[in-house]
Amino acid sequence: MTAVEIAVQDLAGVRTALEEGADRIELCIALDLGGLTPSIGLVEAAVAAAAEARVTDFVHVLVRPRGGGFVYDEGELAVIERDIRAVFSAGADGVVVGAAHADGTLDETAIARFGEASDGMTVTVHRVIDAAPDTVEALRPLGGLGVTRVLSSGGAADCRAGAPVLERMRTAGAGAVQIMAGGGVRVDDIALLVAAGVDAVHLSARGRTDRGGASGPGGGAAGFDVTDRALVRAAVDAARAAQG
């Protein structure tokens, strides 16, 4: 069964994903920056919403302290570990993490540290893997580091272009590490990705609203992203249809 994961940035998005049948969420903020760590208050609210809906293994939290690349100094690594522990205490089901060296190879030592800090939560490695020199080779050691799944476009600009590599990653993972397709995923792409054998598809299903009023001088752009209910429903329906 190919799961559907929706990246959401607020409690309304959490509830939309629950109501429309998504299998899980990646909870974050600032998707325009590629996603950053959400507040603990939002994590707690998401966990409570999932519990109320009696849905398990639903809240997976992105832990990323800043925008830009994934080469972190020791202070940043320590913050990530602290955030992972805080997310665990808030009741999340999993974390989404990653770190790299300057040459693009995965920082396996850091990823192992994140796994230890997760204290049994599911660990997903995010699209840092797509910056690696060889995406398939980068995947191979992750199962031994306690990683459950990776989020990847197959090293391509989007999953459509990366589908052949995603299929190779699925073979290389040999069931030890799940492959979740993410990066420019459209509803029309889901059948192709299911056929490539991925374990899950990931999309943000974003719309835009002007609700909330003007931000005022120096306050930034008006409006904000929202989770589009129709897109979530269409993605879930497409994944189910592609699997017969």
From TrEMBL:
Main localization (coarse): cytoplasm
Organism domain of life: Bacteria
UniProt keyword list: Cytoplasm
MF (Gene Ontology): copper ion binding
Subcellular location: Cytoplasm
A GO-annotated cellular component: cytoplasm
InterPro entries on file: CutC-like, CutC-like_dom_sf
One Pfam family matching this protein: CutC
Keyword Transmembrane found: no
Similarity field: Belongs to the CutC family.
Protein name: PF03932 family protein CutC
Species whose genome carries this gene: Orlajensenia leifsoniae
Highest classification ranks of the organism: Bacteria, Bacillati, Actinomycetota, Actinomycetes, Micrococcales
